[in-house]
Every structure is written in structure tokens, then in C-alpha cells.
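Quick start: read one record
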Amino acid sequence: MRNGILAGNLLFSLSGAITLYTNSSFIEKTVGVDFTAVLYAISSILSIIVLINSTRVLRKIGNRAFFLLYGTLYTISLCVLAMPFSDTAKIIALVVYLFSTNVIIFSFNIFFAHLADKHGRGNMRGFFLLLGNIGIMLGPVISTYFIDIAGFSGMYLAGLVVFVILVINIESTLGTYTDPTYLPQKTYMALRHTLKEKTLRNVIAANFILQFFYSWMVIYTPMYLIQRLGFSWDSVGIIFSLMLAPFVILDYPLGRLADWLKSEKELTAIGFFIMMMCLFALAFYSNPSVLLVGVILFFSRVGAATTEAMTEIHFYKIAKDSDPGLISLFCDLRPLAYIVAPLLGALTVSMLPFRMTFAVLGCILIIGFVISFYMEKKQGWWIPEHRN
């Protein structure tokens, strides 16, 4: 069962990464850049609605059925995107695909919390992130290859094939999975207690800033490289794969380091600082080359990998698999970022030169840099009233 969940995380990350950095280009080609933010916002709102009610659904049907339910929606949406349907049908399917992706991420985090031992959670989370990021690193190379061969339809078909393999893996390995007794708290209760507790409040705030960075970069980096700088899809695919290599290289060692040093807040701050410097470099170099952009984006992900590993390890030293409300709140950060970042990004693009959007994002990351210093080192606690 343990290996099945870990392999499932790798396959799901690969399936999603095949489309991750090209969805915005597909939307721009289909309905224009102005509608991009709206579609991401709609899908994110749907994700939040589902995740808010996730505890009640999990208590009724369990996480395995929950995964299969939204996995079916994910599969249907990819089928529509891969086949010659109308643009309207494909845009609807893309919204379903994006929101079901967020829900499946939540489901996998429930599986992970079930597996994680009480001790060595940093080590376990680091390995979980490592496998997922191997898939994310391979995705851009696969997507650009299939785009060159068969356009966006070929890319979505490749993602569909990988996900079908994932479903077969889950069904064949989770026969012995037993759901915990899910606590009947709601997401708003988890939010209320989170706002009261300094450690949890700050780690969630830091993770939201990180998710904001991801969503902004996923949407606007491909547009900048393809439409503004004129890079080819082949070059972009190589850049993105090399850019994501730090996640594979660093996640597992960082997990072990977190267990050993218990220095999550210092490393989180270092990660934010590296990201900030890279974004300012991207914004203020007037004639960036493929090599220069690749180096800048690579080091930006060195920072992101460090911050991601530390915030997730810090959080999962607190969260339990019986706390779906708390995990749901943590997973809500991604769709929430995909509501705020595209709207603010669209406003920025309308007012400033496109490359200056990265400088604006760098200024926003200063907030995360400051917040990280307020994360407590100790995780051996959790308020009892949250579990009532």
C-alpha cells in the first residue's frame, strides 16, 4: 500500500505536469489572454467549494472512493481536451480538469498523512515530494514533444494515458487501505483555530505566498517566453525541465535536514530570499538569452524547493490523517492563489511592461520572507479544542 501511494503520487504529478505550464498558452490561443484569469478563478472557486465540504464527504464514502469520484471527472475532462470537440466544450473541460486536479491533490495528502510515521515525518515528506517532483520535472519535456507532434490535443492525450495507469495502480494496491475515523470538524473551524495559533498561522501564510508564486509563474512565464521573447517550444521545454531539477535534487535531503536541525523557519526565509533575487533579475535584464533565463529560473526553483519542503514538513508535523478539515484548509491555499494571482497579474500586465510583472511578484515575496521568521521551531503540540 505504501509503495502504491508513493508511485501514485509520482504518476499523478507527471500527468498534471504534462499540461501544467502549457494550460495558459492553450487558453490564450483559444479565448485570448484576457480570459485566462477568469478561467483559473472559476476553477479555483469550484475547488474551494468542494474542499470546504470534503470532511463530510470523506466521512460518508472514504478517501479511496473520493479519489475515484474526482478521478473520473479528471479522466472525462482530459478525454474532451484530447478529442476534436468545440472550443466551448474544451474550455468547460479545462475548468473541470483544473478544479479536479486540486481536489485530487487533497486526496493524496490524506493518503500521505495516513502513511507518515509520528517520527521522521520530515524524511517521509521529503521523499513524497521528491517522487512528485520527478514527475513535474519530466512533464514539460513530454508536453512540448507531443505539442510539436499533435498540438495541444496530443499533450492532453499523453496526460490521460499516464492518469489511467495511475488509476490501475491505485486500484491494485489500496485494497487494504482503511480510512481513519475522520473528525467532524469543518474547514471554517480549522481556519478559526489556525488564526489563533502563531505557528500554524504563519506556516499557512508562508505556504500561501509560495502558492501565489507558483500560480503567477505557471500562468505568465510561458506567455513571456513564447510570445514576448520568441523562444521555441523545444527551448521552453528544456528550460522548464532544468528549472524543475532542484525539486528532485533538494527535496529529500531537505527533509532529512529538517528532521535533524529543526531549522524550518531559517531555511524558509533563505528560500524566499533566493526567489526574490531571481525575480528581480528576470525583470531588470533587458536582453535575456535562453541560457540566462534558464539559469535565473533554475535558481528561482532552488529557493522555491527549499521553501516548499520546509513549509510542508512544518505543517505535516502537525496535521494528522484524521484532520481532513485542517488538511483541506492547507490544500485550499493552491486554488485560492489561483484566484488572486491571475487577477492581480492581469491588472499588472495592463499597467506595466510584461517583464515588470516579475518585479511585482518579487515585492510580494518580501511578505513571505518576513513571515517565515515568525514560524516557531517547536511542533510537538496541537490545541485539543480543534479536535472536538
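The chain has a mean pLDDT of 81.
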